[in-house]
Specification:
Layout lengths: L2 H16 L3 H11 L1 H7 L1 H4 L4 H15 L8 H20 L3 H10 L1 H7 L10 H13 L4
Helix pairs in contact: 1-2, 1-5, 6-7, 6-9, 7-8, 8-9
């Protein structure tokens, strides 16, 4: 799906979700910076299921975008961390519990949990590569 198709799809679906017209939702997304976010975070968001996206938009529009203490990036992390865990399980032949422990106790995991790092916007494979480097250097 192209970025244009994805953004249009999000506007139309969200307008139905909140029972407002598409033009009202477009203006809301534009004013609140959500159009820009959909463009910059396209790779992370376009494969998400609709319920997730609606929750993401609801949380974002409640104030997560401008308040340092409130963030909607936890929703993105909640979807990419299981993918990272699966990669670790397959490559290191460890169980789910151990792979999850590796993610959350790594320096990369620490950075991932900090919204200011922007790491939440990277692919699971890229984040895994950082963890792999830590493991190779015995940094964990």
């Amino acid at each position: 799906m192209s970025k244009l198709s994805f953004i249009t799809f999000c506007i139309e679906f969200y307008s139905n979700h909140i029972e407002k017209t598409s033009d009202e939702v477009y203006k809301l997304f534009e004013e609140e910076g959500l159009l820009k976010l959909l463009d910059t975070d396209y790779e992370d968001l376009h494969g998400m299921w609709m319920e997730y996206l609606m929750t993401f938009f609801d949380e974002y529009l409640k104030g997560g975008r401008n308040n340092d203490s409130v963030s909607c990036h936890y929703l993105i992390r909640a979807t990419i961390i299981p993918e990272i865990v699966k990669i670790i399980m397959n490559n290191y032949l460890v169980d789910e519990k151990e792979a999850l422990h590796i993610v959350y106790t790594s320096k990369t995991g620490e950075l991932l949990s900090d919204d200011r790092s922007g790491l939440y916007g990277q692919s699971p494979l890229y984040i895994y590569s950082l963890i792999k480097e830590e493991l190779a250097n015995n940094s964990l």
